Every structure is written in structure tokens, then in C-alpha cells.
Amino acid sequence: MIGGGQLARMTHQSAIALGQCLRVLAGSASEPAAAVSPDVVLGSHDDLDDLLRAAEGAVALTFDHEGVPLDHLRALEARGVVVRPPSAALQYAQDKMLMRERLAKLGLPVPAFVDLSGDVAAARAALIEFGAAQDWQIVLKAVRGGYDGRGVWLIDGDEAAALAAFDAAAGGDTVLMAEQKVPMARELSAMIARSPHGQGAAWPVVETIQRKGQCAVVLAPAPGLDPETAQRAQQMALALADELGVVGNMAMELFETVDGDLVVNELAMRPHNSGHWTMDGAVTSQFEQHLRAVLDYPLGATAATSDVVVMANILGAEQAPAMSMDERLHHLMARMPEAKVHLYGKDERPDRKVGHLNIVGRPGQSLDDVRERAERAAHWMSHGVWTDGWDPHEGEN
Amino acid sequence: MIGGGQLARMTHQSAIALGQCLRVLAGSASEPAAAVSPDVVLGSHDDLDDLLRAAEGAVALTFDHEGVPLDHLRALEARGVVVRPPSAALQYAQDKMLMRERLAKLGLPVPAFVDLSGDVAAARAALIEFGAAQDWQIVLKAVRGGYDGRGVWLIDGDEAAALAAFDAAAGGDTVLMAEQKVPMARELSAMIARSPHGQGAAWPVVETIQRKGQCAVVLAPAPGLDPETAQRAQQMALALADELGVVGNMAMELFETVDGDLVVNELAMRPHNSGHWTMDGAVTSQFEQHLRAVLDYPLGATAATSDVVVMANILGAEQAPAMSMDERLHHLMARMPEAKVHLYGKDERPDRKVGHLNIVGRPGQSLDDVRERAERAAHWMSHGVWTDGWDPHEGEN
């Protein structure tokens, strides 16, 4: 697996059960996955020689991020390395503009969008035309390299802010695109896996709650989601994975609009934050499933094992809490013996994902109850402060 | 963790979630745990220097087997190493005679037994007296070092066989004891964990099914077990762990007699085969719990997540199947996407435990259904032959 982050770390846990050991290409021995696997190749995902060293003798090569240059992926494939997902698929997760164009061609619901690459003056003019048509209710996005809210600018009607962001990006050689801001009710994620044989398997569609531009909480399954809408989301994801030739996991992030329609937001072709709930709440976790797909095993059952599962991320606080992470874990375990904590072995930095936890509902427990505990636990682990959980009216206007 | 076997391997999986990495003392880099953890000390559990090297800088030292000499444990403790469970407790899991005497003194129900250590002629005479009194319905056991049916001789009324086994053992310097053969209905296991603070937590009592002297199948919870009997078993285990000062997991193997009484058979103070079902079927797995106890975290919830969970061991076959383990795994996954397989990365040898699998019942699924699938899956994985599962009338007279 290329990348030594938490996704590789948790994939190694699943590899162990399958009688395997995950080799990781990591930048340093202290990265989350490199710290727990004995098979570490130190190097950079930007360096083809390092990638080749990592691939040597491996059955297949896969990823914990989208950062490997497309040319390198093609070079690996040309030398016979089994790259999963293949570059022909992964390029759509790497390049938001390419993804938008392909999805639009396939007739999938996407927001209105405009390409801002190429000649800067022409792109600026295109932005002004597009923005005006949308009353500047638009989102600017870096075509490549954004994640967890980085590389995304929400333009809330402010033309000057949009143009300033464009000019700054153009000055720094960041290629942008612009999209219509969808009048959404909430965000969903449809996670599926696809094997080289074309077997597909979909987990229940979940609701994702974003804070500061990154995933904070996942409700599984998405509460109150119309079953037909859920099925439509799963079918869209399965059909798209088939169309693009995805191998491995794919998360299709969706907006559910105020009218109940679905609009595709982003794609990820790897284990994904919106699938962490499966580690404790589904028959097959996303990490085992990704390995099954990449290693060409039949896929595992995707049913949830409970009516309600809530995942909450543990994030680095602005101010490091007085208590150490280890002390906070002690207190959490004493208060909530049912909490399933997953720590990544990362230093705490503001808003950095350093772990997550799952609360799996027991029969008769309500979503509000389960979510309250998950949010309270994650807030404690992040900030070292006990609160009453979350505000059920958060986000209401 | 001293020992590089599958118990350490699976403990490492749980350590990862707690933000840790398990150091193992292993005999070779290819042992199950050494193959998946980057923190391996190569050496022998019989060598005090190796034990000291493994303990250096570790928060605590624990075990995946009972094989460390007691004197070494005491020497480690004398040097300030935090040994969990401590030698004062672990000696009872290492020495069956010591365990029997202690349990009898504490008033716990044990079979009639006789010490056969010391002078060979006197011990032989004691055996003849004890055997005759029991109509030779006795079991001979090596006081130390037996496991998975090794070091146990079932004497089914055959005096000559008993004396032959005694003479062979005495010639080989194996110290024996003899026990009454209990007229049992079935075997149970009461698994608990105890923290250094004395917190105790008990999983549901399970039924264990032995074949060829070793655990083959576990039914969780033990079907049809009288709730008062189950509670009595849990209380016995918790009270004993407290009395002995156990830290970590303890499995109390029990006979349920034909009269519905309980008799203590064996003790293990570590993760145990009878607790493998917890990996997929309980809120907290035995491996996470053992770590929590040994590292002095509050213990996790022990509830089963399903009404029925069946664990079945994958054993090496007498004749290696034509299909490789990997091919068999492919076929199993295709047939049973719900099977949770745990492979240990071990070579297959006759009757050697090379993995296990859990089937977690879904609402409405019967024990017979779940067990049939688990046994069929394990038989396939062991032998490469599909059968109809197991004979529900097995063991009936």
C-alpha cells in the first residue's frame, strides 16, 4: 500500500486476519502504518524508483491516498505491476475536473461546473461569467491534491473573495474549477467495493456531518433516508465503479438536496473516513473488503450488525489538553466501556485526525442516544473536556 | 508479550487500535506474531537474558503461553519488571498440581486427585490405590507443559495402560498427577479479565467442544445453560482471579456434570481459544481486553453482540489438501460472505491450529444453522472437502 497513514495502518490490521502482512511505502518509520507493520519501504510516493521498490514481489499495489502522480502509475503498469485501482480509474479520483466531465457524460447528477484551467485571463473571464450566473453561490476547488477541506473555497455570494482566491491560486500554479453551490439538506456517502472480476458490494448509505470542511461524524445508516433513494445511491456508485473499472473500495460522496435529489460531490477510491463505522458495525469492515477486492478474493457481507452505528473523529485541539491522550483514553474507557476507539499513533495538531471511535447501538437504543455518546466521547478525546455531547439543533437555520 | 504465536499475533491487532505496537519475544522471525509486528526480539522464553531484553523499556510484560520458567518470572519481578499476570498467580496456570491443591483449599469444586510426584515407587503405589478406588476411571496429566491434549492420558478403566503411561513418564522425568474422570455432560469455559485495580469483567459462559483432546468448536453463549449456573461459573472465575491476584485474561475450563454441577478442569491466564468468538461476537474482544488489563486501562464491555456465535478452529489435515490454503479461502469467501476468518500464517501440520473462523448469527438464525455453517466452513478450510457440516448427534451414546 502506497502511503503510511491511518488507512494503511488499519488495512494492516485486516491483512493480519487474512494471514497476510501489509507492505507499506512510507515517508518515515514513525508514520501510522510504518509503526505497526514490519514490512516498510521508506521512500516517497512521488519517486518512481521508490514505488518500484515497494512493488517488488507484491501481488498488487494499492493506495491510502490519491497522491501518486498519474505518469508514475502508468509507468508501473507498463512494467507489469498490478495497480488497483488501475490508473485509468484512479485518475478520476485524482482530478476533480476530469471526474466532473466523465460523470456528466455518463448522465450522473453533478452540480453545474466550469473548467478554470489553461490561459489565466480566459479562465478568469469564465469564472466571472459562471459566478454571475450562479449569483456567486459557488465553490472553488483545486482540481488536484485537496483533502479534508484543503483546496476548497466556499464563496458565499462574494464575487471579490472568489476573484481573490482565483488570483492567488493562479499565482501559485494551482489549477481550479468552480461549481454551483448545491442547496443541500445533508451529505451522504455511498460506499462500495468492486473486485477485478466485477463483483460489487455496497454498504448501507451513511450520512456524513462535516465541520470545518472535513468529516466529523458519520451516522450509519443515514437516518430517515428513503429506501429508494438509498438504493439509487448504491446503484449509482456500483454502476460508476463498473464503468470506470475501479478495483477496491470507492466512496461516492453525495449531496441530498432540499428537494430529495442526489448530486455527486466527490469520489475516493480507497478506504474512506465515511467507512470507519464498518470496523465495529458491519459484518465486513472496509479495510478487509478493500484487501479482498485488491487481492481478488470474493467480497464479504456488507450488512450492518446494528440498527444504529455512529462514528466520530478524534481531532487535534487548538490548544493541547492538559491531560495526555493516554490519560484521556483511561477516562473514556471508564465512562464508556462500550466505546470502540481506534488511535492512529499520530501527534496531535489542530484539527488533525488522530483517531476515531465507534458507538454501536444495542437493541432499543435511539440514534440520538448513540450519537450523543459518540460525540461526547470524541469531544473528550479531542479536547479533554466533557460536554453534554452535541447540539441536536446544530446547523438549523 | 512473551511468545510469538497466534495469541500474540491477534493481540497485536488489538494493540494497533489502542495506538500501540506490541513487542514480541519470538523464537524466529517467521512465527505468527513476529511476521506482523515490527517490534520483535528474537530469543527464547527459557533464557533470562532474552526475557530481560524483551522487557527493556516495556510498560508491562505478558504471555501468549505458560512456558516461561517460574524462576525467571521471579527474577524479572525482582528486577522491577511489571509481570502480568504476576508469577504468584501464573504459577497456578503452570502447575496443575499446585492449582488443584489451591482450588481445593479455596473450596472450589475439583475432581478427586492424587499427587504422583516424588519417589517413583511411592507415587506408583499412590496411583494404584487412587486408580483402584476410582475403578480406573481416571485421567493422568503431566503437571507441567501440557497443552491441546498433549500431556493428558485418558485411562478408560485400563489399569495396565495407566501403569504403562506412568512408567514411561517417570522414565522421561515427566511429573504426573491423576484425577478422577468426571461424569460430564459437556465442557464449559468461563472467561474473565481482571485489572491491576481489581476490576473484573466476565464474558458470557461458552460451551467448548473438544476433538482429539483439543478445542475444536465453541458455542457462545453455552446453549441452554441455566442462568444461575452461568452466573455461578462467572463468579467462581472472578473470585478465583481476585484470590490469586490474576492480571489479564483468565479462562476457567469447567465440566458440567450429568447432574448439572460444575467442576473446575483447567486454568489459563492469557487470551484463550475459548475466547476467539469475542473477536467478532462481543463488544470487546479478548485480545483488546487482555491489553486493557495488562496496561491498566478500565475494562471494556463484554456483552455478546448476537444471540448465537460459533467459533470453529481450522486445523492442519492428516493429508495436505490438493488446494492451497489461499485457494480454499477464495472458495469459502465465495460460499459464505459472512464468515469471519482469522489465519495465523502457520504451515499446515496434522491437527495443528492454523486459524479459526467465527460465524455470528443474525436475528432469527438458530444455533444449529450457525453451527452447521461454522463447522462446514472449518472442515473445508482444514480438509479441502465440503461436507454437510457436523453430525448433530455427535457424541451421543
Automatic annotation (TrEMBL), chains A, B:
<dbReference type="Pfam" id="PF17769">
    <property type="entry name" value="PurK_C"/>
</dbReference>
<feature type="binding site">
    <location>
        <begin position="265"/>
        <end position="266"/>
    </location>
    <ligand>
        <name>ATP</name>
    </ligand>
</feature>
<comment type="function">
    <text>Catalyzes the ATP-dependent conversion of 5-aminoimidazole ribonucleotide (AIR) and HCO(3)(-) to N5-carboxyaminoimidazole ribonucleotide (N5-CAIR).</text>
</comment>
<keyword id="KW-0436">Ligase</keyword>
<feature type="domain" description="ATP-grasp">
    <location>
        <begin position="100"/>
        <end position="295"/>
    </location>
</feature>
<comment type="pathway">
    <text>Purine metabolism; IMP biosynthesis via de novo pathway; 5-amino-1-(5-phospho-D-ribosyl)imidazole-4-carboxylate from 5-amino-1-(5-phospho-D-ribosyl)imidazole (N5-CAIR route): step 1/2.</text>
</comment>
<dbReference type="InterPro" id="IPR013815">
    <property type="entry name" value="ATP_grasp_subdomain_1"/>
</dbReference>
<feature type="binding site">
    <location>
        <begin position="179"/>
        <end position="182"/>
    </location>
    <ligand>
        <name>ATP</name>
    </ligand>
</feature>
<feature type="binding site">
    <location>
        <position position="96"/>
    </location>
    <ligand>
        <name>ATP</name>
    </ligand>
</feature>
<dbReference type="InterPro" id="IPR054350">
    <property type="entry name" value="PurT/PurK_preATP-grasp"/>
</dbReference>
<keyword id="KW-0067">ATP-binding</keyword>
<dbReference type="InterPro" id="IPR003135">
    <property type="entry name" value="ATP-grasp_carboxylate-amine"/>
</dbReference>
<dbReference type="InterPro" id="IPR016185">
    <property type="entry name" value="PreATP-grasp_dom_sf"/>
</dbReference>
<comment type="function">
    <text>Catalyzes the ATP-dependent conversion of 5-aminoimidazole ribonucleotide (AIR) and HCO(3)- to N5-carboxyaminoimidazole ribonucleotide (N5-CAIR).</text>
</comment>
<dbReference type="Pfam" id="PF02222">
    <property type="entry name" value="ATP-grasp"/>
</dbReference>
<protein>
    <recommendedName>
        <fullName>N5-carboxyaminoimidazole ribonucleotide synthase</fullName>
        <ecNumber>6.3.4.18</ecNumber>
    </recommendedName>
</protein>
<dbReference type="Pfam" id="PF22660">
    <property type="entry name" value="RS_preATP-grasp-like"/>
</dbReference>
<comment type="similarity">
    <text>Belongs to the PurK/PurT family.</text>
</comment>
<keyword id="KW-0658">Purine biosynthesis</keyword>
<feature type="binding site">
    <location>
        <position position="141"/>
    </location>
    <ligand>
        <name>ATP</name>
    </ligand>
</feature>
<dbReference type="InterPro" id="IPR011761">
    <property type="entry name" value="ATP-grasp"/>
</dbReference>
<feature type="binding site">
    <location>
        <position position="187"/>
    </location>
    <ligand>
        <name>ATP</name>
    </ligand>
</feature>
<keyword id="KW-0547">Nucleotide-binding</keyword>
<dbReference type="InterPro" id="IPR011054">
    <property type="entry name" value="Rudment_hybrid_motif"/>
</dbReference>
<dbReference type="InterPro" id="IPR040686">
    <property type="entry name" value="PurK_C"/>
</dbReference>
<dbReference type="InterPro" id="IPR005875">
    <property type="entry name" value="PurK"/>
</dbReference>
<comment type="subunit">
    <text>Homodimer.</text>
</comment>
